Queue: 2 jobs
Job 1
Amino acid sequence: MTGDRLSALQVELEILRYNPETDTEPRFQRYSVPCKNEWCILDALNYLKDHLDPTLAFRWSCHMQVCGSCGMMINGEPKLACKAFVRDYTGVIRVEPLAHFPIERDLVSVADDFMDKLKRVKPYLIPAKKRSIEEGEYRQTPAQLTRYRKYSMCINCMLCYAACPEYGLTKSKFIGPAAITLAHRYNQDSRDDGRDERQEEIATNEGVWECTFVGACSDVCPKHVDPASALQQVKIASTVDWYLEHFMSWVKK
Amino acid sequence: METIKTDVAIIGAGGAGLRAAIALAEADPKLRIALISKVYPMRSHTCAAEGGAAGVVKPDDSFEQHFHDTVGGGDWLCDQDAVEYFIHEAPKELMQLEHWGCPWNREVDGSVAVRPFGGMKIQRTWFAADKSGFHILHTLFQTSLQFPNIQRFDEYFATDLLVDDGRCQGLTAIEIRSGQMRHFQAGAVIIAGGGASRMFPFNTNGAIKTGDGMAMAYRAGAPLKDMEFVQYHPTGLPNTGTLLTEACRGEGGVLLNKDGYRFLQDYGMGPETPLGKPELKTMELGPRDRVSQSIWHEIQKGRSVKTAWGDCVWLDMRHLGEKKINERLPFVRDISISYLGVDPVTDMVPIRPVVHYMMGGIHTDIKAATPLPGLFAAGECACVSINGANRLGSNSLVEILVFGHKAAHSALEYVRSAGPGNEAALAAQAEAAQAKLRALFLRNTGKESIAGLRKEMTDTMEEGAGIYRTQEGLEKTCNKIAELRRRYGDVALHDKTNVYNTDLLSALELGSMLDCAEAVAVGARERKESRGAHQRLDFSARDDSKYLKHSMAYYNGLEPPRIDYRDVVITTSPPGVRDYSGAKK
Ligand SMILES: Cc1cc2nc3c(=O)[nH]c(=O)nc-3n(C[C@H](O)[C@H](O)[C@H](O)COP(=O)(O)OP(=O)(O)OC[C@H]3O[C@@H](n4cnc5c(N)ncnc54)[C@H](O)[C@@H]3O)c2cc1C
Ligand code: SF4
Ligand code: FES
C-alpha cells in the first residue's frame, strides 16, 4: 500500500519563547510532539499549538513554500518550517525566530526593516515610455525573460537576511540580499529603464559595497533565487559606473 | 481607542485588495486609502495560484468563446451581464499587469504565451511558469509601493464593520503586534478578504482563508449568495491537500484507476485521447466538478487506489519526461517529492479531490457594490456571479483584477457623493465591538477548545456537505453547525496577553468559519437539485424550473440564516447541456 512506510515518531522540540509582556528575556521550552514521518516542522508546530500549547505564536499560511511566512531558525539554520522535514533531524530540534531581527513574540520576528528596504529599491517597472493598454504588450523574448526570471522568484522569506553576516554585523544597515536582488530583477528587465534611480539606493555603502561575498544568502535561499549572484552582478555594474564617472567623465553614461 | 480617518478602507491585500488600492491611488493622488490585512500583502493566498489567468488575446480566440465556456462551465448559474463585462475587461487587466512587469511566459516572437486549461475550449490562459498567482501578487504589491497615498496596515485583523444611518462607514481592527483595537472611520469599505475553504478538513487553502470578510459583511446585513457551491479540485496530494495544478493535465498528465484505466471516458468525457495529446474540454481537460465527481464514483465502485491517507486515483505524468516536467511543472515535482516522497518523473502520484474554492460569497452587483450602501466587495470573498455553479480554472485570478478595479471606481464614486458620518455614533459602535472582544478575553469559564470545535466543524462539513450530498446528511450537518455555533459562545482562550495573540485570532477565525459554514450547509439543504459543484444523490438532475436562481443567505443571529432566491441574469445563452466530449462530434 502506498504510504505504508510512513510511520509515527516522537519528536523533541526545543522552542524559543518570548512574550514581551510577561518575560524579561527569551527562554527555551521543551515539547515532545507525536509526528508522522512525512511531516514538516510546521506540521509539528501546528499539532503542538492545537493539542499541547495554544499560546505559542508563529507565522504561517500556505504550507507550500510560497507565501514566505514561516521562516525560522531550525537547529541554527534559517529554514522555512514548511520545507524542513522532521525525518531529516535526529535528537532535539531547536526552533528559534530568524536571526538578526528583533523578536516580536516567540517565533515571530519584527519585519519592519525588511519591508522598508524592499520599498527603498523602487521595485517596480520604470519604463522609458509608458504604453497604453491598446498598444499591447512590450515584446520580450524568452531569452530576455530568462535574464531576470530567477531573480523574480523571491518569496520575501527573509532567510537570506538571517544568514547574512554583514546584515548582522552592520546592525541591519546593509540593505541586504533580497532587496538588492529585487532591484537587480527590475534592472535586468528589458521593459525597464529605471536603473539609475535604483542605483542611488543600492550602489551606496549601505548597498552592495557592504557585501563581502560570503554567499550564505544563496545557500539558504529556498527558492534558488541566488541573491549572491545578483549582488555580484550589481557590484560589477556599479564598478563600471564608478569608473565611467571618475576616469572617463567625457564618456556619456 | 485610536481613530484612523480615511476615505476608502480596503480589508484584504491579496490580488483583489491590491488591485483596488492601486486603482484608487491612480484615480486620485489625494485620496486617503487604508489597506488593511491580517498578513503582509505578499503572504496573501493569491501567491499559491499556479496555473494561470484567462483572457482572450490570440487571433483564433473570441469573447464569445470565453463567454460560452464560462457560462456553460458555471452550469448556467452565472449572471451573464457580469460575465460579458468580465471577459471584455480580462485581457485589459492582464495587459496592465504586463505593463507593470509581470513575468508572463512568452512566445519566441516576444508576445505573451497562452496555455490550455480545463473547461476552456481554446488556449487562453496566460501563465508565468507554474507560479502565476505568485507573480501576479508580487507584481501588484511591488507596483503599489510607488503610491504614497496607499497607507498599509499590515498585520491588522479586521473584526467588525461599522454601520450607521443605513450605510457602512468603517470598521474595527486589531493591531496584531500590540493587541490594540483601532477604529477606521471610512467613507467607503471594500472587502477583499478571500475565500473560506478552511471550513473543510482537506483543502488547498492557506491558513488565512477563513472567510472573515464574508462573515463580517454577513453579520452587518449583506447577504451571502450561492454559498452551497464549493469547488473540489480533482488533484490534491492525499496527505496535505497541497494542490497539484491543473496544468499537470493541461500538459498531458492522465488520471488512472487502480487497474491503470483512464476512467473519465466512462463519465461522458471520452472518447479516450491519445497519451500526451490532451484535447481541450475532453477527458482530463473536463471541468473540475465533473472530474472530481468521477473520482468519487470510482471510489464507490471499489476501483480506487488504497493509500495510508485514504482512497485515491493515480495522476500519471511519467510519459511527459523529465525535461518537460522540469520545464513546465517544476514546482509540482518539487512538492510531490518533498511532501509525499513520490517523483512524478518516475512514479505515478496518488491524488484525491480536495476543497479548493468558494463560488459563493458576499452578494454584489456588476459594479461590485453590495446591497449595503458604502460596502463593496471583490475577489474570492465576493459573488458577482461570474462563476455560477462551478468556476472555470484560471477565471478567478482575472476576477480579482477586474472586480478589484471595478470596486475601486464604484467606491470612489460613492465616496464623492456620500455625506459626512455621525462620528459619535460610529465611535460608540467601535467601543461596542471592543467590549465584545474584551468579554471573550476576560471569560474564565470557557469550556470549549478552539481546535476541538474546529475539528467537529470540518468533519461535519466533509460528511454532510462534501462532493455528494443528501437531505439526511445535510440536515445532520445543519444541526451540527447550529450546535457548534451555540457552543462557540463558550469557547476558551488560553492566551490572555496582547502581543501577537494567535489564540485570540484563531478564535475569531473559527467564528467566521462557523457563520460561513452554516450558510453553505443550509443553502445546500434547500437547493433540491444538482447543478455544477452542488450534487445531490437524492435530486440528481438540474431543475431550471425551480432553481435557476441564486440563493441568498441572510444572517439571523444564532438562528440559521433566512434563505431567499434571486433570478439569474440571462442575456444570450439559454440554459443548455454541458458538453465535455469535444472529439465526439
Ligand atoms: C492552491 C491554489 C491554486 C489556485 N490556482 C488558480 C489558478 O491557476 N488560476 C486561477 O484563476 N485561480 C486560482 N486559484 C484561485 C485564486 O488564487 C484565488 O481565488 C484568488 O487568488 C483570491 O484572491 P483574493 O484577493 O480574493 O484573496 P487572497 O489572496 O486570499 O487575499 C485575502 C486577503 O484578505 C486578508 N484578510 C482576510 N481576513 C482578514 C481580516 N479578518 N482582517 C484583515 N485582513 C484579512 C488577507 O490578509 C489577505 O490579504 C487558486 C487557489 C488556490 C488555493
Ligand atoms: S532571496 Fe531567497 S532567501 Fe532571500 S528573501 Fe528571497 S526567497 Fe528568501
Ligand atoms: S507557510 Fe508559506 S512558506 Fe511556509
Job 2
Amino acid sequence: MSGLEISGFSRKISGKTILDNINLIVPSGQTCVLLGPSGSGKSTLLRCINHLDRIDSGIIRLNGEIIGYRQTGDKLYELSGGEIARQRTRIGMVFQQYNLFPHLSVLENIIIAPLKILKKKRGDVIDQALVLLKTVGLESHAHALPSSLSGGQQQRVAIVRALIMQPEVMLFDEPTAALDPELVQSMARLLKQLSEQAMTMVIVTHELSFARALQGNVAFMENGRIIEHGPSHDLFTHPQHVRTADFLRQS
Amino acid sequence: MSHNLVIVPKTKIAERLATIVVAACVAALLYSIFKNPRFEWQIVFANFTAPALLKGLLVTLELTFFAVFFGFPLGTVLAAMRQADSRLLQSVSWFYVWVFRSVPMLVQLFFWFNIAALYPRLALTLPGLGELYSFPTNHVLTGFSAAVLALVLHDAAYTSEIIRTGLRSVPTGQRDAARALGFTNSGVMYNIVFPQAFRVILPAAGNQIISTLKATSVVSVIALQDVLYSAQEIYERTYDVIPLLIVASLWYLVVTSLLSMGQYWVEGRLSRKDQPL
Ligand SMILES: Nc1ncnc2c1ncn2[C@@H]1O[C@H](COP(=O)(O)OP(=O)(O)OP(=O)(O)O)[C@@H](O)[C@H]1O
Ligand SMILES: [Mg+2]
C-alpha cells in the first residue's frame, strides 16, 4: 500500500522500553498528528522512522519499501550506510531545534542536499529554492546567515530545506515549540497548504490548539505506546481512553 | 547651560604610573642592549647568514615539516579511533595520547635514538614466507629519523586532542540534520562537520605547528645539526656564545612570525567565508 506503515515497532534503551509495539498507518497524502505528554517517545518515534535511531523489533514501510533493512527469508538485514542515506532522501525531517547549518547562508542550506546528494544542476536548484523561499515569505533573506533570522524564520527555512528534496513523507518534531501564538497559527496554515498538496505528514506536538487546527488523524501517545488513534474531530470531542481525556482537559 | 559644559574624562592614575614605569624599563633595556659591547652585534650580523647556520635552519624546517606532515594525519586517525564504537580502538587511542603527552619530548628522543638496544635488528617477516628482509636498527634510525619519529609521535598525540575538541564543538543536531537529508557518513563529515570544526581546529593547529618548530631544538642533544646545534658548533670554536644564541633566536623569531602570518591569513579567509555570499 502507499503511505507510511509502522508495525510492531519497539525500542529499548539500556533495558528501559521507550517505544512499545507501535502500530500506525499514515495513508499517502494524509496527515497524522502525534500528541502526547513530554517523554512519551514522540521524538524517538520520528527518529526511528528515518532510521536515525535503531529499533529492536518491528518494521517500517514507506510506499511499500522497508526502511533501513532488507528482508531475506525471515530475517531483516540492516542496509549499508549509503543505502540508508538514499532512503533518507525520500523522508523529509524538520527538527525541533531546526538544526540549520550555521556556516552556510539560507540559500546554501537549502541547495546543499539537492546539489551534493541528488547531483542536480546548480541553476535549477537555486531557481527552485527561490520559489520555495517565496512561498514562505523569505526570498529577501536568501543570502543571510541562519543566525541572523528569528526562530520562526529559521523554522521555515528548515521546512524549505526538507521540501526541496521532494520527499514522499515529511516528519515534523514540535514545529511550534519556539513560536509565539500568532506564528503558531501561520505555521498551521503552512502545514495545511502542504496537506492540500497531498503531502504525507507526521507532525509531533503537544499543543492542542495547533493539533486541532491541523485536522487529519491524531494518535495519542503515552509511555511509548499509542493508546488512542482516530480522526481529529472524534478524538477531541469523544476521547475513548481516560488518559487521553485527562490530557485534553489539562492542556 | 548644560550644552556648553566641557566633558573631562576621569584620570586613570594607575595606568599612567604603569606607563611611566614600563617606559623607563624599556629605555633601560634598550640602552643596555645597544651600549653593552658584549652583545657584539657585529658578530650577530656576520653570522646571521653563515652557510652552516642556514644549513642548520634547513634541518630545523625539515624536521618541523615532517613532524607536521606525518603527525597531523596520525593525529586525525587517533581522533577518529577515539570516536569509534569499538572499545579497543577507543582504548588504544586514549592510551597512546596518555603516554605520548606525558613523557617529555627529550626523553622520547633519547629513547628512539637508543632503540637499537631494545630491537637490534628490524626484519620484514611474512607468515609462511619467513624473514624477507632484515637490517640493523641503527641503519634506519639515524639521528634524523629518530628525531622525526619522536616529533611525529609527540605531535600526533597533541593533534588528535585538537581535532577531537574541534569535532566535539559541532553539536550532534548538525550531524542528525545532515544525515536526515540523506548525506552518508563521509558526506556529513566533509560538508557539515569539518567546515564547522575547522574554525576551532585552525588556531590551535597553528599554535601546535609553532610549538613543534621550537620543540625541534631538542635534537641538538643527539648532535643533529639543526639551527641551534649549528650555532653551538660555531661558538664552541669562537667562544661568541651570546651573539650566536641571538642569531639562533632571531631565526626562530623570523620563522614563527612567518607561520603566524600564514595562520592569520588563513583565518582571515575563513572568516570572510562567514559573510553571506
Ligand atoms: N539516547 C537516550 N538515552 C536514554 N534515554 C533516552 C534517549 N533518548 C530518549 N530517551 C528517553 O526516551 C523517552 C522518550 O523520549 P522522547 O524524546 O522521544 O520523548 P518526547 O515524547 O519527544 O518528549 P518531549 O515532548 O519532551 O520532546 C524519554 O523518557 C527519554 O528520557
Ligand atoms: Mg521530543
